[in-house]
Amino acid sequence: MTQKTYRAEFDPAFDPAWPGASAGTSLPEILAACPRDAAYDAWFGDPRLQPVHEALARISLTGTIGKPLLTLHGTLDSLLPISLHSDVYSRMIADAQRSRLHRYYRIEGGNHVDSLMHLDPEHLRPMLPCFRTAFNALTAWVEDGQEPPPSATVPRPAGSGATDPALLNTCSLRSAS
């Protein structure tokens, strides 16, 4: 669904040529199942795609950030593995020599969606309290010049189950040390 949504935005002229299917620009069309959309390849062989390549280049991640940025990523993210996504982007920012504008918090036990916590309450933790804390920290950094804590792996408090109020309502962005 994510790929189809981006394809509809960046290449609305794409026609999957699937009987009864539409590439779609409206939400119902985008969400309609179309096996050909899963095979969409925006990078090879089609000269018509030059405008698509240019549009993607404008939003591509380069690490050259110009404003303060806080990244939070759960170490148990089951949809976007941390080592393939936020770890890579953090290195891109460092390679672009913009680390002074970036803080990266690896949230131990965090998953991609909090609704999965009940599946393993002894290991998972909610991300929402950490997002709230990070939003406040980013606001203080941008508006008041108050730098947030250094990048760190934020430990999951020992002995806390997923329903513990300490995990449900609070999150410190500081490492244990």
Q: The biggest beta sheet, please?
A: 3 strands, parallel
Q: Kindly estimate the percentage of residues that lie in beta strands according to DSSP.
A: 5-15%
The average pLDDT is 84
The structural class is alpha/beta
- Adjacency order of strands in the biggest sheet: 1-2-3
Rg, Å, rounded: 20 Å
The helix content is 25-40%
Tally the helices: 7
How many strands appear in the DSSP assignment?
A: 3
What would the principal axes of the Cα set say about the shape? globular
Name the descriptors.
2 domains; 8% strand; alpha/beta; three-stranded parallel β-sheet; 177 residues
Present the secondary structure layout.
Layout: H1 2-10, H2 27-31, H3 35-38, H4 50-59, E1 69-74, H5 86-95, E2 102-107, H6 128-144, E3 152-154, H7 165-169
Parallel strand pairs: 1-2, 2-3
Task: Write a structural description.
- The chain has 177 residues and is an alpha/beta fold.
- It has 2 domains: 58 residues, no CATH class; 101 residues, no CATH class.
- The chain has 7 helices and 3 strands; from the N terminus they run ααααβαβαβα.
- A 3-stranded parallel sheet has the order 1-2-3, sandwiched between helices.
- The mean pLDDT is 84.
How would you sum up this structure in a few lines?
34% of the residues lie in helices and 8% in strands.
